[in-house]
Design goal:
With 317 residues, the protein is of the alpha/beta class. It has helices spanning 2-6, 21-28, 38-42, 49-60, 62-68, 88-98, 102-113, 122-132, 140-148, 165-170, 218-227, 230-241, 254-267, 287-295, 306-316, and strands at 9-11, 18-20, 32-36, 156-159, 179-181, 196-199, 243-247, 277-282, 299-304. The strands form two sheets. Strands 5-6-4-3-7-8-9 form a seven-stranded parallel β-sheet, with helices on both faces. Strands 1-2 form a two-stranded antiparallel ribbon. A hairpin with a 6-residue loop joins β1 (9-11) and β2 (18-20). α4 (49-60) packs parallel to α7 (102-113) and α12 (230-241) packs across α13. The longest helix has 14 residues, at 254-267.
Length: 317
């Protein structure tokens, strides 16, 4: 009987995603924590990681950019780089781009043209300019997620995005939304002080004149995930207290490679980790993609991705 209860799903309306009943009940108890990626902010006109890399190259290396723009999404490693009129360093960046390792690509570019990996590099400056160049108006999905992030008196949401669209979506007169980034993020707890928009990869400063730390390149991931362990320690604690729900990610996104493989490994040693979920959209049913998520220790919730993922927003609303 218990397995039948655990497997029950609730339809929220015609054409919308069906949600596991156990997740709805956990949300009613205030035991759900949303973790949001670039797919959410694309609805507000901001780029995903791949397009952000293209934008940076268009400004800093037009020769490589001309090559990258001709590479189709989903290209495999058989797409050759040998006949390109580029240096070996540039060809290596193209090869990593084909493999979807965008954090590595930006790290290689930064080390090649800036010779440093600090906040003042040209790569980081152009990333910040690009993200500030949008309309900076939150999309309906930001507002829906901020409403869902209400744990009963406080709002808590986690994002790997650098933009401040969640803050804008949750802004109310006399009730500003707190913002925390990297080392300033409060430790997970069920208490009320665990609240705000938590930028676990860093966030843009409200003032364009101030530069902030961002987890952007492969070296950054090594620094904050392996050396300082800021992000994995946060995720480990959160996964014991809350059901983590991922929104706006694909299984191959850089944050997923670093975050979820580590948590899945923890799940084989500890029995107190709560079930983790992800919303994933495809144009047609894709059981292989679903199994890919399951293999990472994530329960997939599928939705129809046609019409710019409108079903996802309607489901959350």
């Amino acid at each position: 009987m218990q397995s039948n209860i655990d497997g029950r799903v609730i339809s929220l309306g015609s054409g919308l995603a069906s949600i596991p009943e156990r997740l709805l009940l956990a949300h009613a108890r205030g035991e759900v924590l949303f973790i949001c990626g670039a797919g959410v902010s694309m609805a507000a006109g901001l780029p995903d990681f791949r397009d952000l890399v293209l934008d940076v190259y268009s400004l800093l290396d037009k020769n490589v950019h001309a090559v990258l723009t001709n590479i189709p999404r989903g290209a495999c490693n058989k797409w050759g780089t040998f006949d390109l009129d580029l240096t070996d360093e540039q060809k290596a960046e193209v090869r990593r781009f084909i493999g979807g390792e965008y954090d590595v690509v930006l790290g290689m570019l930064e080390r090649r043209i800036d010779k440093l990996t600090q906040k003042g590099s040209r790569v980081r400056s152009e990333v910040a300019k690009r993200l500030r160049a949008g309309e900076n108006n939150p999309a309906p999905i930001h507002r829906a997620l901020m409403r869902l992030a209400d744990r009963g008196g406080v709002t808590t949401i986690v994002t790997t995005n650098f933009d401040l669209l969640f803050e804008a979506a949750g802004k109310r007169p006399r009730h500003p939304v707190s913002t925390y980034s990297l080392g300033s993020i409060p430790r997970p707890t069920k208490r009320m002080e665990f609240s705000g928009v938590l930028h676990i990869h860093g966030g843009l400063d409200a003032s364009a004149k101030r530069l902030t730390d961002l987890v952007l390149t492969d070296e950054d991931f090594g620094e904050y995930y392996l050396r300082r362990r800021v992000v994995p320690d946060f995720i480990y604690d959160a996964a014991r207290l809350y059901h983590l729900v991922l929104v706006g990610y694909s299984a191959n996104d850089a944050p997923m490679r670093y975050l979820l493989n580590a948590v899945a490994a923890d799940g084989s040693r500890f029995d107190d980790l709560k079930e983790r979920f992800t919303f994933f959209g495809t144009d047609r049913p894709d059981p292989v993609a679903a199994e890919d998520w399951k293999a990472r220790g994530i329960t997939p919730i599928h939705y129809d991705a046609q019409n710019n993922h409108s079903v996802l927003c309607k489901t959350l609303e």
